[in-house]
């Protein structure tokens, strides 16, 4: 039995680090495990120009605990009136690694998101030309579409035509949750990839209603039925370079989760690698963990692989019920559970 596993330092290709006191409370959890992270731009106000991207990057770097070596990769938040020239400048100056498409009102802080993808023609042509990746929260927002179908309908109505119209555009379908998404990505060309969260590998929708309503199991896209979890799991452990690690760690203060209208988002950063590794172990493919965590993402983005390594040891770890930092209390993914691997560093 493997008792220790050492892999090239991994990256997190989708994380919410927030801002202000929350940023200070959470960034160390990500920086401890990951060398780089794609930092989502859904702040209030969102990151919609080069100056905002630079300023946010500086705030993140200042908040990283001393002695940790961590590089935030910044993302431009697309709005209906996003300026292609500003986006190209941000990419060429190395400020932005990608642009993020939030359909308006699809998720947390997406009110400024895109109301109609046809408004982005100039932006998408530019991104395709310069090789800048488009990251997508892939859910339609029409109220008449069942919440469990919104990802599959997005793929059919928006993503498939987008891929057809911009055949060279690099696209990451973020936090995939369905068999339809896993199949679409697997069957597309090498310019289409996907991130996968730990929660969508581990829970299905029953977890949200397990003996009562469970706000800490609620995120968007919402967890789906078991057959979808199994399909996403199969994709993650397949060894395909199209699928890579993106935690979507999305902290919300405990009071905003445990509420009559609780926020979507699961805070999984503190035990992210432990969580993923358990899945690869259960699937009997520990040898594929390094590709998923440390190689497929940088290759997709055209960035160098990290130097250095991290080690996890087989040892039981008790996940606390709460993580408290000053005035901020967060409930982590796996709260109160015991995990089988310990991150050593
Ligand atoms: N995943 C979530 O449930 N929430 C994210 C937004 C997002 O990634 O859609 C957040 O910012 O809280
Ligand atoms: Zn999202
Ligand atoms: Zn997210």
Number of domains: 1
The number of strands is: 13
Output the CATH class name: Alpha Beta
Tell me the radius of gyration: 19 Å
User: What percent of the residues sit in helical stretches (DSSP H or I)?
Assistant: 25-40%
* Unreliable residue stretches: none
The secondary structure category is alpha/beta
What average pLDDT do the residues reach? 98
Amount of beta strand: 15-25%
CATH fold node name: TIM Barrel
CATH architecture label: Alpha-Beta Barrel
Bound molecules: N-carbamoyl-L-aspartate, zinc ion
Largest sheet: 8 strands, parallel
Q: Give the strand line-up of the largest sheet.
A: 2-3-4-5-6-7-8-9
CA-to-CA gap between the ends? Answer: 21 Å
CATH superfamily: Metal-dependent hydrolases
Order of H and E elements: EEHEHEHEHEHEHEHHEHHHEEEE
Number of helices: 11
- Give the overall silhouette: globular
């Amino acid at each position: 039995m493997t008792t220790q596993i050492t892999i090239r330092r991994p990256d997190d290709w989708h994380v919410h680090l927030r801002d202000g006191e929350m940023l200070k409370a959470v960034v160390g959890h990500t920086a401890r495990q990951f060398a780089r992270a794609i930092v989502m731009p859904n702040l209030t106000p969102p990151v919609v120009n080069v100056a905002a991207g630079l300023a946010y990057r500086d705030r993140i770097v200042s908040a990283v605990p001393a002695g940790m070596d961590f590089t935030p990769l910044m993302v431009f938040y697309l709005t209906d009136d996003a300026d292609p020239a500003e986006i190209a400048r941000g990419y060429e100056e190395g400020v932005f690694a990608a642009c993020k498409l939030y359909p308006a009102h699809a998720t947390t802080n997406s009110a400024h998101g895109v109301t109609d993808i046809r408004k982005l023609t100039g932006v998408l042509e530019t991104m395709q030309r310069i090789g800048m990746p488009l990251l997508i929260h892939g859910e339609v927002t029409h109220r008449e579409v069942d919440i469990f179908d919104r990802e599959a309908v997005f793929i059919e109505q928006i993503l498939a035509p987008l891929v057809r119209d911009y055949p060279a555009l690099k696209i990451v379908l973020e936090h995939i949750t369905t068999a339809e998404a896993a199949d679409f990505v697997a069957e597309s060309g090498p310019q289409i990839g996907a991130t996968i969260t730990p929660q969508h590998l581990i829970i299905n929708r029953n977890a949200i209603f397990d003996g009562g309503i469970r706000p800490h199991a609620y995120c968007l896209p919402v967890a789906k039925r078991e057959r979808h979890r199994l399909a996403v799991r199969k994709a993650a452990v397949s060894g395909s370079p199209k699928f890579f690690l993106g935690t979507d760690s999305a902290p919300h203060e405990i009071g905003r989760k445990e509420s009559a209208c609780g926020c979507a988002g699961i805070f999984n950063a503190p035990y992210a690698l432990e969580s993923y590794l358990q899945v690869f172990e259960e699937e009997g493919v520990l040898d594929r963990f390094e590709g998923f965590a440390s190689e497929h993402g940088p290759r997709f983005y055209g960035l160098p692989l990290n130097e250095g390594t991290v080690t996890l040891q087989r040892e039981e770890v008790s996940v606390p019920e709460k993580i408290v930092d000053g005035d901020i209390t967060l409930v982590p993914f796996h709260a109160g559970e015991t995990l089988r691997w310990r991150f050593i560093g």
